[in-house]
């Protein structure tokens, strides 16, 4: 298929919530490991976690499931290249980026600091409902200190954009650097730059604005002025999730070699699942994760600080195009599951049926996939958001949904002991959002798996055309400087680095591109948000971050609306405008409700390898998806108006605050250009898509890379298209399916 082809309140805590809320299902039962005919039963029981007590009626094991394999091309174990083929290619080692020297508490030169301070003060001057200016709360100093711990490429981008801002004003009518402009001239120039037709100048201002506003909003005086506190809805104590021993530098300080059955690169929704399932079968498993291992104790402090710690490149990853679209991703043990919303949707039946038909995928029909979804949801303790944790943001949106006769429900999430702290996207301080570092990885560890953190996979080991292991760099956790080399020799290699870094890693090692499709067909679920001001305080950040959805336009237009809020110290960066007008909006933050939406894109993008560097992401939003995005924004705004909002902000060009439905009816979808939308994307998929035809796919129907036996992909990149819903459960179910395939063909691999 072609790239562009459509693949079809209050501020006060509420009453204390009992540990066993009335609408909570009983605790998830212990999931039995796959029984396997190839292994003798263990002589000693493995330790079990307290969080998942043994059930009287355990879930049926995967081996007991009916799983017939139609004889289609590519559905069996990959065949090695013929002996007459080309000789193995010597792959050069991937260069590790050298971090900035960490000699002090500052990164910025005097010139760049002056630019940042001038920009911050122009953006946030004294006065307004929150009187403090950026310089009065030391925004530039705080950002300068924070940058010491930033990723090298993130610092480089930030410094480059400061340079763009400083020097671009020289070539304007002002004829001098931005830091030298007087306040009126600086304001006039910045106002123009915010709407510049020059992509680089607008991108620089947008990024700098995001970090300055969020740093300002995360200072104690601004938090107090807005009314943000760190309290949760429930006063129950936080639960203590499972912990595990994780290796890395300096525990392993010299070059080191290990041998195992399976090495897994990545520990998110894909890698953690396959690691756990294979470890519980008795296989020796090693997991390699580039990020650090964090526990509940690390998830304290301002959310913006945690955003910078837990997100790859401090959240600066973006898809270049018109418009440029941020694609935030986690980098930690647990991958993006550590910082996602925890929303759990099964892949719709219509999508599974389309994948089965269009890509020749056996056993992905709804009936065949049901046992895998069941298994994942039991392990992840998936349940609807309880009423008491919805929050006023969702309740007020729901009132509009009911007035319009639409369909909405609480979102099902992977939670246990949730206290409604509203900071799910910055690491759960309650161990309640069950990311893989609390579920699958501890189970894998209990079953004997070894987990390495701060370890970057570098080079595949391929012998006689078959994957035989990987070499990796052990990184110093703070500087990210390579300190030693880890060599893992394995019978099976599973790449689960995500839809951006899996294709880059495969390309670095010159494998996976027989079809020419590696890194292509990127889908991202482009997303936007609508804000609505009410007369009363909403405190939208209190309660569950993403608790409620509306799906009336999901099947007809592939539009999914999900109530989503954000804490001020991260949400502030998305506010439009500058100066006192901006501060007036920020001062009304307690009265702001918000909801997000995404479309299942027919647009597509690419991941382009850069040796030793972060890959480049490109994406072109087409007119069809633009029209659907505009329609979704209008529908969301209409719901807020029905709920009683006094003004709704859609972010659409030329459309100011919406106070009446007639303004939406006059909106012309076709008149909105793709580049005028403000978008974000949280769900990259499809860049190493699976299929039975090696000429149009990267991996086979069960994730094995075409032409390289023993090399599998098990993450979002293998999905053949948009799942049309939040993809976490889809990735986990398909990874369970891959583990089941390896269990059934163990004699071919182990």
Folded structure, characterized:
This protein has helices at 110-123, 139-146, 152-168, 183-194, 199-217, 220-226, 271-280, 303-310, 349-359, 366-379, 392-403, 440-446, 498-508, 554-557, 568-571, 579-587, 623-642, 661-665, 728-744, 746-749, and strands spanning 256-265, 285-288, 318-320, 325-326, 382-384, 408-410, 412-414, 450-452, 455-463, 466-475, 482-495, 526-533, 548-550, 559-563, 592-599, 604-608, 616-620, 647-649, 680-681, 711-713. The chain has 3 domains: 104-227, no CATH class; 244-310 and 332-384 and 426-517 and 686-745, FAD/NAD(P)-binding domain, CATH 3.50.50.60; 311-331 and 385-425 and 526-599 and 622-678, Cholesterol Oxidase, domain 2, CATH 3.30.410. The two termini are 35 Å apart. It is of the alpha+beta class and 750 residues long.
What proportion strand? 5-15%
Query: What gap, in angstroms, lies between the N and C termini?
Result: 35 Å
Biggest beta sheet summary: 7 strands, mixed
Question: So what's the CATH class of the largest domain?
Answer: Alpha Beta
Brief overview, please?
With 750 residues, this protein is an alpha+beta fold. It has helices at residues 110-123, 139-146, 152-168, 183-194, 199-217, 220-226, 271-280, 303-310, 349-359, 366-379, 392-403, 440-446, 498-508, 554-557, 568-571, 579-587, 623-642, 661-665, 728-744, 746-749, and strands spanning 256-265, 285-288, 318-320, 325-326, 382-384, 408-410, 412-414, 450-452, 455-463, 466-475, 482-495, 526-533, 548-550, 559-563, 592-599, 604-608, 616-620, 647-649, 680-681, 711-713.
């Amino acid at each position: 298929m072609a790239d562009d082809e459509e693949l079809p309140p209050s501020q006060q805590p509420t009453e204390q919530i009992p540990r066993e809320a009335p609408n909570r299902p009983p605790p998830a039962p212990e999931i039995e490991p796959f029984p396997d005919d190839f292994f003798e039963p263990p002589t000693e029981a493995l330790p079990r976690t307290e969080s998942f007590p043994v059930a009287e009626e355990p879930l049926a094991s995967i081996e007991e499931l009916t799983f017939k394999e139609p004889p289609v091309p590519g559905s069996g174990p990959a065949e090695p290249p013929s002996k007459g083929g080309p000789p193995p290619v010597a792959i050069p080692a991937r260069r590790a980026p050298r971090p900035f020297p960490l000699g002090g508490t500052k990164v910025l030169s005097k010139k760049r600091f002056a630019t940042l301070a001038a920009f911050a003060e122009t953006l946030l001057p004294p006065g307004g409902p929150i009187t403090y200016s950026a310089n009065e709360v030391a925004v530039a100093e705080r950002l300068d200190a924070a940058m010491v711990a930033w990723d090298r490429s993130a610092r480089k981008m930030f410094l480059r954009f400061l340079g763009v801002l400083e020097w671009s004003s020289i070539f304007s009518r002002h004829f001098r650097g931005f830091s030298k402009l007087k306040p009126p001239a600086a304001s006039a120039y910045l106002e123009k730059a915010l709407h510049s037709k020059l992509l680089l100048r607008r991108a620089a201002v947008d990024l700098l604005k995001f970090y300055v506003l969020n740093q300002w909003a995360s200072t104690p005086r601004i938090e107090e002025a807005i009314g943000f506190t760190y309290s949760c809805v429930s006063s129950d104590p936080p639960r203590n999730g499972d912990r595990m021993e994780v290796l890395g530098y300096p525990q392993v300080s010299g070059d080191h070699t290990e041998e195992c059955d399976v090495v897994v690169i990545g520990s998110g929704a894909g890698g953690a699942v396959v690691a756990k399932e294979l470890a519980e079968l008795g296989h020796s498993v090693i997991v390699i994760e580039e990020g650090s291992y964090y526990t509940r104790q690390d998830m304290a402090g301002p959310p913006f600080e945690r955003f910078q710690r837990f997100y790859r490149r401090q959240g600066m990853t973006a898809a270049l195009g018109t418009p440029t679209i941020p694609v935030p991703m986690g980098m930690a043990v647990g991958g993006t599951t550590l910082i996602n919303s925890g929303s759990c949707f099964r892949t719709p039946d219509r999508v599974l049926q389309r994948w089965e038909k269009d890509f020749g995928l056996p056993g992905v029909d709804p009936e065949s996939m049901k046992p895998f979804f069941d298994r994942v949801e039991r392990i992840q303790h998936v349940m609807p958001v309880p009423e008491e944790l919805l929050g006023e943001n969702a309740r007020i949106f729901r009132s509009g949904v009911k007035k319009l006769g639409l369909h909405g429900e609480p979102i099902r999430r992977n939670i246990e002991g949730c206290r409604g702290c509203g900071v799910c996207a910055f690491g759960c301080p309650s161990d309640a959002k069950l990311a893989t570092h609390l579920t699958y990885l501890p189970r894998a560890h209990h079953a004997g798996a070894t987990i390495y953190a701060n370890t970057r996979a570098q080079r595949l080991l391929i012998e006689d055309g078959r994957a035989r292991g990987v070499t990796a760099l052990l990184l110093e956790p703070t500087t990210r400087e390579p300190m030693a080399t880890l060599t893992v020799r394995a019978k099976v290699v599973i790449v689960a680095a995500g839809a951006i870094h899996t294709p880059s890693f495969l390309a670095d090692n010159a494998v996976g591109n027989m079809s020419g499709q590696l890194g292509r067909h990127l889908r991202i679920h482009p997303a936007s948000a609508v804000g609505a001001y009410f007369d009363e305080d909403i405190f939208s950040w209190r309660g569950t971050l993403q608790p409620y959805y509306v799906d009336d336009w999901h099947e007809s237009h592939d539009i999914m609306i999900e109530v989503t809020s954000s804490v001020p110290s991260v949400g502030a960066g998305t506010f439009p405008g500058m100066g006192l007008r901006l501060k007036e909006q920020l001062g009304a933050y307690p009265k702001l409700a918000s909801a997000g939406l995404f479309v299942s894109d027919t647009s597509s993008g690419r991941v382009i390898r850069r040796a030793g560097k972060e890959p480049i992401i490109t994406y072109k939003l087409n007119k069809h998806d633009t029209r659907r995005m505009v329609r979704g924004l209008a529908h969301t705004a209409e719901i807020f108006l029905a709920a009683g909002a006094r003004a709704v902000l859609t972010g659409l060009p030329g459309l100011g605050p919406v106070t009446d439905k007639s303004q939406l009816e006059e909106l012309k979808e076709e008149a909105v250009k793709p580049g005028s939308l403000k978008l974000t994307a949280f769900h990259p998929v499809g860049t190493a898509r699976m299929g039975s035809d090696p000429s149009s796919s990267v991996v086979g129907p069960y994730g094995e890379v075409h032409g390289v036996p023993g090399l599998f992909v098990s993450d979002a990149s293998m999905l053949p298209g948009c799942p049309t819903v939040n993809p976490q459960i889809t990735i986990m179910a398909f990874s369970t399916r891959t583990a089941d395939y390896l269990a059934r063909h163990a004699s071919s691999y182990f």
